[in-house]
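Q: Predict the assembly, please.
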Amino acid sequence: MAGEVRQLDDRKLAVLRAIVQDYVGTEEPVGSKALVERHNLGVSPATVRNDMAALEEEGYIHQPHTSAGRIPTDKGYRLFVDKLAEIKPMTAPERRAIRHFLDGAVDLDDVVARTVRLLAQLTRQVAVVQYPSLSRSTVRHIELVALAPAKVMLVLITNTGRVEQRLVDCPGTVGETLLADLRARINVRAVGQRLPDVPGLLEELPAMVEQADRPTVTTVLATLFEALAEQNEERIMLAGTANLTRFGHDFPLTIQPVLEALEEQVVLLRLLGETADAGMTVRIGREIAYEGLNSTSVVSVGYGSGDESVAKLGVIGPTRMDYPGTMGAVRAVARYVGQILAES
Amino acid sequence: MAGEVRQLDDRKLAVLRAIVQDYVGTEEPVGSKALVERHNLGVSPATVRNDMAALEEEGYIHQPHTSAGRIPTDKGYRLFVDKLAEIKPMTAPERRAIRHFLDGAVDLDDVVARTVRLLAQLTRQVAVVQYPSLSRSTVRHIELVALAPAKVMLVLITNTGRVEQRLVDCPGTVGETLLADLRARINVRAVGQRLPDVPGLLEELPAMVEQADRPTVTTVLATLFEALAEQNEERIMLAGTANLTRFGHDFPLTIQPVLEALEEQVVLLRLLGETADAGMTVRIGREIAYEGLNSTSVVSVGYGSGDESVAKLGVIGPTRMDYPGTMGAVRAVARYVGQILAES
DNA sequence: TTTTGGCACTCGTGTGTTCAGAGTGCCAAG
DNA sequence: CTTGGCACTCTGAACACACGAGTGCCAAAA
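A: Predicted assembly structure:
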């Protein structure tokens, strides 16, 4: 085959870039004449028309009706994002605003709440932030408290500031000595470890205590493991749904499936879950597995306290979105949230 | 004045009722002819027209344009709700479905989540459920745990299953004896009490410990009081926003302010807060204080584990909603949630 | 006094027509 | 390969027009 992807010369790429930029700006199909007027391409409309024909042939753009301008296709946006666009860095005032906005947060809930609102405001789209998930974070402290002779409260504190507690009904009375011993043994092994690794590190514990205490220890550990494994606890926060009103002109049809998708935590979690661990992920239109979101694009990225990403955040908007700007905002916000988490 | 509210005779009321019912069903202005056809009023269209003129005179209905049918005004809906409508009880299968749907809940979060989804589905509108609020509930247990020499974790467990925890930085080292003493004293006084009453009951505590420990005790208590008072923690859960797409035909204009309002937890909290403690509250259109919701109606009611209402839940929909049905669903769901909470 | 039928009037909606403008594709010349 | 010219297509706005639903009013009937 003479090149499965026919090579597009530079000018054609420039034309595509211009089309994307103009269409994102005006929301209207863009014609050859308007193009040469707004961008100094140094060629005539006729030339641009030829290029457009080629681009359409390759599936990067298409026209709604015969006598209309061109609109980028999903494939066109894809090429734009991959090859033609630079992530737009935030301006200094914007960075200040972000910092200022996030610095006021008092606890983890507040950090997430502020982040999601900020992101929605910055991008003027729908923002989604996943709570720092247990499975990626590490143990800061594990506490055992006797509430009654055979009742123990277990508290798990993670490095992301999350606290989980469980009540444990033990098979027999639990002495304060045993509890203190257990507490010490658990913490010395678990603190600083990633949550999924903890069970493995505590396997040997039952064997280390007196025969009589084993059932108790096993019970406590079982509850702890359960708390550690609790994947259901992956929560998500949403903001900016009002921005959906700026979606398109053909309203209810476009917006309803999106609203429905946004109500399904499961869908959103999977959406964020598919984000690459490193770098930013952009999914465009049909690339999105969930059908209801087929006319949207998702820009998402991981964030975390160290270099490690502990959760994801992102933005959902129309495929016709300002990719460079959105990507810049998403990246910047993720960074700052990471810093905030690291500090606390 | 010869009666500031002119008496409307029975037939006029029947006409109003018919207008409301038809308009809710068809979403289109209803004319005199259509009315006599669908409801057997036993009079001619001309008579109905006279009644309509009277109703319009009194402000219960109005016509969008000269040659159109009539639409109920907020005042008309108000009269309908107050005098003309009976709350529609749930059918047996519906009740079974509600019960079945809510019975699977595993914890408080889950109860609220299921409730709000159920309500949205049942009414096909936007549902709002407030978490059982701290201020109405009572203390089940308060726990103090030493995490470090001068660091104490405070855990507050309420009868509604809610858990709040706080880290306390103490002015000096905290001995285990002091902590145990404090824990016992606090619990003996606070357990079973309503949250707002607790501070008053613990006032005397600092005076009961040794001089040297007073700062510590004061600090711990301050944090506890803060947690108790935390009104911000009044959380809300939302579902059914996709139902907004069935709002009206003049889309973005109607829906945007509503979406914005729904994002403001504060607005929703105030909205629910204004619900009467006993009985169901229906607010219609302009009766709602918040401007963005002026073209909606809110049906809300308190729910709780005992006779006591601990929180509110409700539904937000277009003023043109099926009031009897919505009120029936809201009442039924509130009852069942109350039962579920009482059981757990 | 209330109800009813009749009638003229109003006005929104849907339909068809026209027209201008934007945009294209193609072709032949530069 | 680029460009200007040209014929062609198609949308959307503007306009006219007829239809029909619905009204208000009035005089007669109950």
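Chain B touches chain A through 22 residues (CB under 8 Å). Strands of chain B lie at 61-62, 71-72, 126-130, 139-148, 151-158, 163-169, 236-239, 281-284, 296-303, 311-318.
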